[in-house]
Design a protein that fits this description.
By secondary structure, the chain is of the alpha+beta class. The chain has 5 helices and 8 strands. A hairpin with a 2-residue loop joins β2 and β3.
């Protein structure tokens, strides 16, 4: 049911762009009768950008400037503002690259984000702090006990600065996002 809701919501985001309408991509509206054909087209579109909008708690897979998928996310315990240093529990903001992946992560699969970049290191250096690193897009912890634990993670920010998805969403992102894909993390 959650997967279908995400797909319908993603379709609602993409329909205005596909139809050339001037409506905002984030405006929600009803799916049309052409939903299966539209979904099939979106399912095949190559992903050329990952966009994270922190205040929306959404990760978008983009193709040619059009969102083809959208997923609910959790962020670091201190979600507002750009990551400045190791241990601040913030999720960085800016442009990075998905540069490697870990199929044996302590979280269900993980994709590494190339934080810190040159600007991040310079900012941290000016403050005399370590910028941190190992920022990932990942699924849930492998150590979760049951459905109650999973349900709690859906509606809270709980990472140390990473971007967390459900395992189902992470499986799709893992399969669709190749290493070398740019990621844009917005406030």
């Amino acid at each position: 049911m959650l997967k279908r809701a995400v797909r319908v919501w993603t379709l609602c985001l993409a329909l205005p762009a596909l139809a050339g309408a001037g409506e905002s991509l984030v405006q929600r509206h009803e799916a049309t009768a052409g939903e299966p054909a539209q979904l099939a087209m979106l399912d095949q579109a190559p992903v050329d950008l990952v966009r994270v909008v922190k205040h929306e708690r959404i990760l978008y897979l983009m193709s040619g400037g059009v969102p083809v998928r959208a997923y609910a996310i959790a962020l670091g315990d201190q979600p507002e503002g750009h990551k400045l240093q190791e241990g601040d529990e913030r999720t960085p903001e800016g442009r990075y690259i998905i540069d490697w992946r870990n199929p044996n992560s302590q979280f269900y699969r993980s994709l590494h984000i190339s934080y810190p970049n040159e600007d991040d290191r310079a900012r941290a250096g000016a403050l005399g702090v370590d910028p941190g690193g190992m920022i990932m897009i990942h699924g849930w912890p492998n150590s979760l006990g049951g459905e109650e634990d999973i349900a709690r993670l859906l509606y809270t920010d709980w990472t140390n600065g990473c971007i967390a998805l459900t395992n189902t969403a992470m499986k799709e992102v893992w399969e669709r996002v190749p290493d070398g894909t740019p990621i844009e993390i917005l406030p």
